[in-house]
Automatic annotation (TrEMBL):
The keyword Transmembrane helix applies. Keywords: Disulfide bond, Glycoprotein, Immunoglobulin domain, Membrane, Signal, Transmembrane, Transmembrane helix. It comes from Ameca splendens. The keyword Phosphoprotein does not apply. It is a single-pass type I membrane protein. CDD domains: Ig. It is found in: Membrane. This is Ig-like domain-containing protein. Residues 1-19 form the signal peptide.
Length: 250
């Protein structure tokens, strides 16, 4: 019986600790029981920290964003203090805002932002490459929640990884389609990268690939050096010849 009472007391302890704090945070939109605020990019989040009734010599409040102090204006520090996040950006994802008494940092309350956003892929990009050159196409698929799949198509069909020399890689943020040696007959056309999100559905970006004939390329620096040598040699020959003619005329 004593053991059961001890377990129940242990489970209730965090709840009681939160409730005995004299500092509370109210937010728009409202937070969940765990102090998580659901929001999206470009939205606005308003936080209001209030000091509840109690005996406090110092009533000044302090705001922290991920342990870094938030600059507050005079008149927005005592008893009641507000912070506005506008607009919400990607870097706000997972950010924790904490409000506490300046004189007692343990008297505090916190909320955490959960920022949902879709992948930033769209539009059409024109790409030109010469035959036998290498090529890399990229789709940035950073999102919250994470995308569930990424597909690559060429002219409306899923790319053939076995017969068309395609290599597809992904690090969870960027999906890359690579071709080590481009051939016009195999690789020219319209490519499409499609990312699927459980919240935002499908989003795509297209690449119009044009393959041109291979051109002969000459090393520029050796050519310049050669021309300089030839020019100096010719100049020295002219000077030498001129001196010989000058001697004959004397």
């Amino acid at each position: 019986m004593k053991l059961m009472f001890s377990i129940a007391l242990f489970l209730l302890l965090p709840y009681c600790t939160r409730q005995t704090s004299d500092v509370i945070i109210e937010s728009t939109p409202a937070s969940s029981i765990g102090g998580v605020i659901q929001t999206e990019l470009e939205k606005t989040v308003s936080l209001v920290c209030t000091l509840q009734s109690g005996t406090h010599d110092d009533k000044e409040l302090v705001w922290l964003r991920n342990e870094a102090a938030v600059d507050l204006k005079d008149g927005n520090k005592e008893n009641r203090s507000s912070v506005c996040i506008r607009p919400v950006i990607i870097e706000d994802e997972g950010a924790t805002f904490t409000c506490h008494l300046k004189s007692n940092a343990s008297n505090k309350a916190s909320v955490t932002l959960n920022v949902t956003y879709h992948t930033d892929i769209s539009g059409l990009e024109e790409v030109t490459v010469e035959e036998e050159e290498s090529l890399v196409l990229q789709c940035h698929m950073r999102a919250n929640p994470m995308v569930t799949s990424v597909t690559w198509k060429l002219n409306g069909s899923i790319v053939d990884l076995l017969t068309s020399s395609f290599i597809i890689t992904s690090d969870g943020i960027t999906s890359k389609l690579q071709i080590n040696k481009v051939e016009r007959s195999l690789h020219e056309g319209l490519y499409q990268c499609t990312a699927t999100s459980p919240v935002y559905g499908e989003r795509s970006k297209s690449f119009q690939l044009t393959v041109t004939e291979k051109t002969l390329k000459f090393p520029l620096m050796p050519m310049i050096a050669g021309l300089v040598v030839v020019g100096l040699t010719a100049l020295l020959a002219i000077i030498s010849r001129w001196r010989k003619i000058a001697r004959c005329c004397k």
